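Morning. Coffee machine broken again, so started the prediction first thing and wrote up yesterday's gels while waiting. Chain of 103 residues, entered below exactly as on the submission form.
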Amino acid sequence: MRCVIARYPFDLTKSGVLASMKGVKPELVTAESVAIGRRRYPVKQVGEVITRQDRRDFTSGEVIRAMTRLGFTCHDHIKTVAVQVPTALQTASALLGAPSLEV
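Came back before lunch.
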């Protein structure tokens, strides 16, 4: 499929993208992401690998549009929710039935 990313035309195929991303470790996802195989990659990382261009040269929208047309699943930014995790002391107290020592 022919697509334009950062004003340059690219002939991309799904198998070509899979081959390019094989062996690439996903970075931490902080914005939009693309599911490739069993992994989720940041859109900018995928764009950088498949186009060999600097991430500042293209927008995430250009890469999302191309990946969607190729049949990959794209995800919006996931908002994280703070979860309170008990400390080791709180966990031990709960297991032993001791009174809680919360501050």
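The helical segments are 14-21, 43-51, 60-70, 88-96. Going to sketch it on the whiteboard this afternoon.
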